Amino acid sequence: MANVRLEIILLGDGMSGKTSILIKIAEIVLEQAMEEYQAMLVRREIPSHEEWLFRVKPTLDERELEKIIERRPLLKHVPQAQYLAWLELAEPQIIGFEDWLKREGILLEDILTKDTSLATLGLETFEMRFPLGRHYLFVSGYDLGGQNVYDHLRNVLAGLAKPESYLLIVFDSSRYISCENSVRQLEDSIKKFEQRGKATPTIVSIMNKIDLHRYLDNAKRQESISHWVFEALVKAREEGYQYQFPHVIKKDEVIELSIEPTTKLGFEHLEAIIYDTLRRNIHDFGKPPLTELNARSVARELAARLLLLQQPEENFEQFYEELKKVIFEERPLAVQFMGGFKLKALRGEIPQDELLSHVRKKFERFVFDLERVTKDDVHMAIKKSIRTEQLERDLRLFSKRVFKTNALGGEGIVDLFVYLAYQETTKAEQKSIERADVRGKGSLKRL
Ligand SMILES: Nc1nc2c(ncn2[C@@H]2O[C@H](COP(=O)(O)OP(=O)(O)OP(=O)(O)O)[C@@H](O)[C@H]2O)c(=O)[nH]1
Ligand SMILES: [Mg+2]
Questions:
Q1: For helices 352-362 and 267-281, what crossing angle results, to 10°?
Q2: Could you give the CA distance from residue 95 to residue 91 in angstroms, rounded to a whole number?
Q3: In this structure, which of 85, 175, 214, 435 has its CB flanked by the most CB atoms within 10 Å?
Q4: Digit-coded pLDDT (tens) for 113-131
């Protein structure tokens, strides 16, 4: 068998988890590599990780090890990080894990050091390489930023994707609006592409964040969230509301905003208040599945859903289309972006009121009527946000497989990766059989 090349293009709405999936794939490869490295160590009579945990670790100062791990970004991605750090200290004659990876041609560092606290901008290329017997599997491709990605979809199909590429379409299964938006746009672009007689790449759909979907699909939790959000909205109407949110650049800095009692609440405040109630009330807030960033996207989805529930039938479609444009333009929360003036705000040059008025302008049309809201509305909004199962049926129209994944915990990612690698290796094997066939025939002729 020859080297195998697998080209992947990751596409989908912002925050659906494209970059996280890529990181998880790299972690799975790293785990495999760690097993081989471990086998090499055992041949050199170094204690195995299990032995080390039992015999050596209790005698060590873990702070020393943590200092080494801090300096080695790759080690943070393996459960045996402390063991590897110890090895560096205690057995300097043995090749370190990172050097060994380089020696073996296993390239993963660029992917593993990506930061998902920020959106991917535009397009990032990636390449992973790892051994497959005596050859290599090269996984390369493009990780596209999700903001307004569908504006560029036709160019992606026409420019980047080759017939042999895999287009991985990533959906956030906890956000119906985002899924619905992606599915329709994708259907449309693919139809147009095929009408022009072009060969489409293989499309593989991924319903990601299934852990978050499961978390929200719980009757008791839905009841509590409805209660908290409804109480907060009543408070905003009757007494005004004070909420907090993290600064978009300075992660440790918290910004506080107050609003006067009102019956008409702008979208930007509505989503921020929902975020605030989650932050205040949920005891496991900040940890997966409801990480701080996920709380922001849940808040945005619920705010959009609540707003849609108040729309009369006759202008629903138009309103929905306009709302979708603004909610996919940037990551939530809107108040964190304050009209692009964040740097000036950092220096205190522009007062908050003025900054907020820029956000208001963008969301001008999107105002929630606090006089009409009921607790049942909030409950309904949560239920609608996670009703993504029906979209799966549509997905099967253009995707051979639909994978369900949790990119943080890893569920479904091995299946996905094995599927992709299997497709390409069998193709490569087929080609090499054909080549051998041709060579065989040639030599017969010469005889
Ligand atoms: N609970 C949960 N959170 C996830 C999952 N996948 C990604 N996330 C979180 O969702 C956020 C966005 O993930 P990214 O991987 O940056 O999403 P993306 O699609 O690359 O986003 P853009 O680059 O903005 O288009 C991060 O905070 C991740 O930790 C998942 O399967 N489950
Ligand atoms: Mg990304």
A1: 110
A2: 9
A3: 175
A4: 999 988 888 889 999 988 8
